[in-house]
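In this section we turn from sequence analysis to structure. A common task in structural bioinformatics is to predict how a protein folds when a small molecule is present, because the ligand can shape the pocket around it. The inputs are simple: the amino acid sequence and a SMILES string for the ligand, here adenosine-5'-diphosphate. Study the lines below before reading on.
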Amino acid sequence: MLNRITMSPPVRIAIVGGGQLGKMMTTAAKQMGFHVTVLDPTPASPAGQVADRQVVAAFDDGEAIRAMAAEADVVTYEFEHIDSVSLIALEKSGQAVYPTPKILRVIQNKLTQKRALVEAGIPVAPFMPVPSRVDAEHAANSYGFPFLLKACTGGYDGKGNALVRDMDEINDAMAALGDCEIMAEKFVPFTCEVSVMVARSLNGDIKSYPLSENEHEENILRRSIVPARVTDKIADRARKAAESVMSTFSGVGVFCVEMFVTPEEEILINEVAPRPHNSGHYTIEACVTSQFEQQIRAITGLPLGDTKLVTPAVMINLLGEEGHNGSAVLEGCAAALALPGVHLHFYGKAMTASKRKMGHVTVTAPVLEEAMTIASKAQKMLRVIT
Ligand SMILES: Nc1ncnc2c1ncn2[C@@H]1O[C@H](COP(=O)(O)OP(=O)(O)O)[C@@H](O)[C@H]1O
Ligand SMILES: [Mg+2]
């Protein structure tokens, strides 16, 4: 068990996944002098471009993960859709893996995740397992229309969710989700969506970040506004809910807790991601300690850093323009960067595709409204094309 850190020789960190989250984790780790290896099937992945070394292998290549781990002091991951069984085996062999694979296993299945939250007394929308069509009808009768059918595993950016508006849509929705474990969830007529990044250290300290207000289009995060424009009461409830999620799972690292704010000003937990998150990118420029540095601190046994907000911030995602598939080019970069407080992150993915997350911009300004105005301007200028 890793419980002490010495800077010489440097701690070696292995990260499963070489996308943008891995890249930003790697950048934070390199800044602090750690050695980083990432594993990703795409050569010269975003994280591979900044890490000491990239292992080119599939995420389900247990042997490659084991070999990478053998040369590391601690293993972490940038996304939750990985084989928890091979990580559990790694941990059993004495390897430090954070967040622990046991938690990953509960969280990576939306049904077991929600059951764990309910057991801990944390409020979520009503849900039930749907092993067959009859159960979907039962869900429709209990929840009314619309309601959601969700694939229990493997979903992201709304892929894996189907909105059902009447009985006739059940068959199509189930077919669209394919041959997988399915659950139903009551539709929440939320007033807004918010998230809290929350960190927990090896010795159990918990620190949460300020509340982010998240706007999605077609289930993909487009804009995060911080601080969220909600009452102090709502922000306080959200923070408390996020912290109780973190102590329930005893997570080590940074987790994202996504929530709905209901018209009654209640908080319902939508889902938990056991890793830094897109809605926490603002922390890089707007908080004392970024979510990525925090992740590295937590998994290497260091104390957590200050999560205080230094400035209001608005984050917008740069998605691949529709109809453009191929070598990525960012248009409008010079114009956008001429605006005050614009911080550009372009991930270095070779190929763009429609709605693919290619980069993001965080705008900081002394007043939130100003950051929002500048972010809208920047958004109009920037296009990811071929
Ligand atoms: N029960 C629900 N009621 C209303 N909207 C929902 C519900 N569940 C999900 N959504 C909407 O769909 C989005 C994606 O759903 P989520 O379960 O978070 O899937 P993913 O794993 O793809 O992020 C949410 O951010 C929210 O906008
Ligand atoms: Mg989500």
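The CA atoms of residues 117 and 174 lie 25 Å apart. As an exercise, try to locate the residues that line the adenosine-5'-diphosphate site and compare them with your own expectations.
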